[in-house]
Design a protein that fits this description.
single chain, alpha/beta, four-stranded antiparallel beta sheet, globular
Length: 281
Amino acid sequence: MNEAIPVTRVTDQGTAKLMPDVDRERAWLLTVDGAPQSYVDLDEPAHLEFEYARRLGHVLDTVAEPGRPLDVVHLGGGALTLPRYLAVTRPGSRQDVVEADRGLLELVAEHLPLPAGAGVEAHAADARAWLADAPSASADVVVADVFGGSRVPAGLASVGYAREAERVLRADGVHLANLADAAPFAFLRSQLAGFATLFEELVLIAEPGVLRGRRFGNAVVVASHRPLDTAALARRAAADAFPARVEHGPALRDFIGAARPVRDEDAVPSPEPPDGSFGIG
């Protein structure tokens, strides 16, 4: 049994808490202002506890042949769950993690240190500003998993952001976004519409109950200039403990409907989730 002691610290952007998992000896849950942010098992970094993290992992597993190193930019740091995952599933990858909360990065580095040679560099910076300074065509993958509390910031919810991310990606690069919304999906549809103006291929991964408008939840949006292995994604998403649907092509265009891309000056954060919406998947 894990006898580790919870750690609470006021960081730059809230109150962060690291809580040990009693069922896994060196596993930790990170919350910020009470909202679950990350789950990390130091002994098994390829274990992805949250459902949305597993869906992001499925995409990362299928964007290139197994084990091939990738150059990845992570916008949003948390406890570095996905960087740890890629460091073991795609060793040799070069990863940049951009996290606005320097205090949170310091807390994670102190209590959940990365193994030597992980190839991960952390940057305490605003995600949109850091991306604007990043070289063009320098990344294979950009992962946007930025939440201010439990909402995606407006700065990462516009077609201007999508254009900046597309510039940083290589020609065959892939953009992943963890978003959250509920019916009638005004936020999610507008985000998809924005990516559709720049990328030929779009994929949406979410639980059927969310897509049917029954509850608030996460949705993973994938955008690229090349076809994605949607069959492999669908198999993996369907095999999860909480199965998800993979939408693409005409069905996804129907979902977007008449939604319009959002300009920077009109961008708003994602909706405030109802109480109790997020927990461990």
